[in-house]
Amino acid sequence: MRPTDLGALRASPWAARGGRRVADELRANLIERLRAGATVFPGLLGYEDTVVPQVVNAVLSRHHFILLGLRGQAKTRLLRSLTGLLDPEVPVIAGAELPDDPLAPVTVEGQALVAEAGDATPVGWLPREARYVEKLATPDVTVADLIGDIDPIKAAKLGTQLGDPRAIHYGLLPRANRGVFAVNELPDLASKVQVALFNVMQEGDVQIKGYPLRLPLDVVLVFSANPEDYTARGKIITPLKDRIGSEVRTHYPRTVAEGMAVTAQEAWLARDTGVRLPSFVAEAVEEVAFQARDDARVDKHAGVSQRLPITLLEAVASNAERRMLASGAPALARVSDLYAALAAVTGKLELEYEGELKGGEAIAREVVRRAIGQTLTRRLGATPVDEVVAWFDEDRSLRVPDGVGGADALGLYAAVPGLLGAARAVAEGDGPDDVAVAAEFVLEGLVARRAIARSEERGYLAADPELVAGGAPRRRWN
Hints:
By secondary structure, this protein is of the alpha/beta class. It has 22 helices and 14 strands. Helix 12 packs across helix 13, helix 13 packs across helix 14 and helix 18 crosses helix 22. The chain is elongated.
């Protein structure tokens, strides 16, 4: 039974925790989790050996810290995961405007309530989810939004001076007392707001409209920012930067396999239509993000969010569903579905000037084509495809209508020597549909590698021996 008044709370095991600050609470629960060998931040893939150890060090050091990284690097998710290191619930003074520890109140109101009611002071219980407060920084955020402002009406009702803390209408940060306060995109805050933040962090005071006020809050502040903005002159004031204990750099997945694990975790693929995604299709989707991040026409300072492969994979699955619902074809995604899902790519690429001249859709199409070619290179390994290329070089072409699948498609693909052998080397099943989808993957990969070509009229055909579309030199398969 949880205590409901201060007297009962003092007689309970909670009395031993009275006055423990949030930073100590996070540290104690983290130590317990590390000793038990439990995962510190479940669901954060790819950060186990890089970001997580640095965040652990920051928490063990009782630091305020900042995550520096480009968009789509799970910064917000990591900050929100800190709630898992808080106690399931903590006692607060019931009826007080701000969450305050009944055993060690820090606010003027909390101290007054305890002094007046003594052991009869009512106690409420605050769950860990309510102890995390988050704010997205924008240039129009004011000191009043984050810290508070003087409320003349409140002062008149209480009969106090304007400089009395009881006359303050509190902002988000004081309301996060006894918890974690997160600010995303910190450099977007105006300088005077940043000054108010570091005053609260270090000195526990703030000036509101010329009135100095003590705010000895018990709160851990965490931030996120783009590295470019955080280091640029004028974006972040030096005193605030100096008071942030640790700077932790986040990153995109380092390998395609790592990225695939993140995308599979986040993408919505549990469709009631039973659509299937071959792993080489999922790999090509992930490779799109890697190719885009390496493309000189894509803005490196903006980055390519991990949301790109997540939404692209969902769109690929949806295109396979649409094909199945329209024609009764098997609900099996094909690598060509990536081209039908370009809408999930174009909006996530911030282009440089050269890229803007060419256009977002053209850049996205090139990135997808390169991704398919790179995926085929990895998947085929030493499997030969020279026989396939040679067949097209003899001025032959192959056209497979959209509605054809399964055994009918295999009959068409069988006309190309070596194609079905290469397809079976990458297929994930022996069924006609699995092999047919794999055969299309091989052909699309050869097109991407410029070993063969594709046109709307003739389908797959020999590549120009001198030039390919766009004037680039032909690259033969090897």
